[in-house]
Amino acid sequence: MSPSAEFTWRIKVRKLLALHLLIFTILTSAAFAEDPRFLVNSGHTDTISSLDYLEEDNLLLSGSYDGTIKVWNSDGQIKYQLQISHMPVRKVAACPGKPIVAVIAGDGINSVNLTVWNWQTGELIFREMLAEMPLFIKFSPQGNFLVYSKTDWDSLVFLDSETGNKLNLLPEGFGIVSSVFISDSEKTLLTYNNSGSIQYWDLRNGTRKTKISTIPSLENISFTSNGRYMTGYSSRELLLIDLLKGSKIKAIPAEDLAASFIDQSTDKLVWVTRSPRDITVHSASISGSGFGFPNDTKFRNFNAPTAMLSADGIVFTAYETGAIYTKSEYSDDIILFAENNLLEINDFAINETALAITAPGKLLSISSDFFTNRSVGIIDPETASRFQNTDRGSRYGISAGRGSDFIIWESESKVGGSIRLFDSVKGTMTALTDITAPLVSAEYDSNKLLTLDKNGECKIIDYVSGDEDFNYTSYGLRTVDFIDGRNIIAGRNSSSTLKTPLLHINTRTGETVPVEDNNILVFDLEYDELTRSLYTLGFEKRNGVMRTVLKQHTGRNHDRAETILAFPGENIGSSFTSDSNSSKIFTSLGYGGVKMLYWGGFTSLEKTFSIPKILKLRGNLLASLNKDSSFTIFNPSNGAKVMDLFIFKDLSWAALLEGNVFYASPGAENYINIYDGNSATELRKTDYKMN
């Protein structure tokens, strides 16, 4: 394929203003708002697991496996966002009348956390570790307490919503509680036990008022707003239960039920059934005589939703993609409410002229004086280029090559492909050599290219001719780097034979020498020529507990290891990079942000927009690719954040800078929302955008 065929088109975008104008704007923008709050109007990047609604404020709260909660207005505009955890958010419960949300996050097996937050200020109010995933969690109607249920005889746990202190509202247990209804006065509690009982409790003194037998093992339980009726699912039927008698009033067949709930504003039952290609949303009124005539709407070519609710006659359905759709009871139209607008980014690199980004089937490069000047200033994108491969599902790795080159390779193909060089100045693409398996990495050093593929084959390739100079294969190799100019250091799984995850490889003789280390795996490493130190990131098991450790290895054979940072658990997505000029180490280990090691101590850099994932350093630029595919650019000399950069699916972009200003390509300002501090008052974008 010719370079012109592969490099399909180039877009010219506006050249931005000079640095002196940026400084002027930063100084003058303070007159508009003391602390404006910038948000990118984009949906979740992973499965939405839970929805809740604040009826008095017309706000929807969503929680996702991406570890965030988002607060939306009725128009699908994001108002607030919190990064709750690196683990999936499983359940959210909004507090009536207060900007407070309870969140259950965890892997669902070994780690379950309950956290309660002020979603306006981002303040963590309290945290509690749980032994298991609760059956439900909800606030009382006045927001004075929080209640959740566990699979224990003492099933219910009551917590003060402001302090997290346990409340002894019911002194004795009475079996596993599947669901509860709390009266508006917070004086009466109704409980449903899976064994088949409805019980009424006086919360003022903890006494039981009455106990009524009903149908056991009901699922998908929901209550009418006045607590008069309950619905549940059993034996492929939705049942309407009289809560004063415990008797079944009516049943509706519901084959392949996906979800059911009662809209608290309309007291209508809403349920969803699924078929192989579609879902159908049904609704029916509730009365003492049963259900009204159902209204049905088919969602064609929709998978089963992962979370749902109905509020004010609007049905919200959420999905694995992070999208939310709405349907009004007065219309059959299905409307997209929110979706992830950010381009999915697989990898990136910075060279002397540009920032290059790979996405599925695409290569995007942004050329700018920001990259060529060796001092941190503004980002000044002059051109944006996109490479579109015929295989739209392909994923590419990328690294900086010689001069204006980027090295690009297939990272997930089944048959390998080729290594190509993209000249970001000329806009040309040339093939260097073929590969037989997808690559893990390809790093340039002194006219040599060091590659590692997923089969554990390591090669040194001549950068000009593409000829192979060295080859070494070992199953389980995870990472490699040049050391001492001519040899290789490799990280791998520790084996029963070698009992170490590190190997020195002599590229002249092929001899391998194990390097002593007690890690069970090294998945990232980097050699610092200035200090002759080796830095590694891997897993270590100590006292039966797995942890992820960043180590410094010194000595002639690098066999003296010192742990400089450790995180409990397996943080396989973390990375690090070193500054060869200053010997600073930057790492994303621990999910809490980017940390800088200098003169024996760690400093946390300014907060990134999302959890940092991949770090790369080039000259006076430190870039973090974050979990949500946003970028954060830092000045590595002082750790200051320069900007957050967002690239959207339509290939427009926006850069949020320190100093309360932003840049955006034409149309991208539509993705930016600006609010007055912690309030939901929206500010004029023209006051903060640089043209």
Mean pLDDT: 88
Count helical runs: 3
Q: Uncertain spans, ≥5 residues at pLDDT below 50?
A: 1-33, 373-392
Enter the CATH topology name of the domain at 217-340: Methylamine Dehydrogenase, Chain H
The number of strands is 62
- CATH architecture level-2 label of the domain at 217-340: 7 Propeller
Shape by Cα distribution: elongated
Report the radius of gyration as a whole number of Å.
29 Å
Could you give the order of strands across the largest sheet? 56-57-58-59-60-61
- The helix content is under 10%
Topology diagram in text:
Elements: H1 3-6, E1 9-12, H2 19-29, E2 36-40, E3 48-54, E4 59-64, E5 68-72, E6 78-83, E7 89-94, E8 100-106, E9 112-118, E10 123-130, E11 137-139, E12 145-149, E13 156-160, E14 166-167, E15 177-182, E16 188-193, E17 197-202, E18 207-213, E19 219-223, E20 229-234, E21 237-242, E22 248-253, E23 257-262, E24 268-274, E25 278-287, E26 290-291, E27 295-300, E28 307-311, E29 314-318, E30 324-328, E31 335-338, E32 347-350, E33 354-359, E34 362-368, H3 369-372, E35 381-388, E36 396-400, E37 405-410, E38 417-423, E39 428-435, E40 439-445, E41 448-453, E42 457-462, E43 468-473, E44 477-483, E45 487-492, E46 502-505, E47 512-515, E48 521-528, E49 533-542, E50 545-554, E51 560-568, E52 576-579, E53 584-587, E54 595-598, E55 601-604, E56 612-618, E57 621-626, E58 631-635, E59 640-647, E60 653-657, E61 661-664, E62 672-676
Antiparallel strand pairs: 1-35, 2-62, 3-4, 4-5, 5-6, 7-8, 8-9, 9-10, 11-12, 12-13, 13-14, 15-16, 16-17, 17-18, 19-20, 20-21, 21-22, 23-24, 24-25, 25-26, 25-27, 28-29, 29-30, 30-31, 32-33, 33-34, 34-35, 36-37, 37-38, 38-39, 40-41, 41-42, 42-43, 44-45, 45-46, 46-47, 48-49, 49-50, 50-51, 52-53, ...
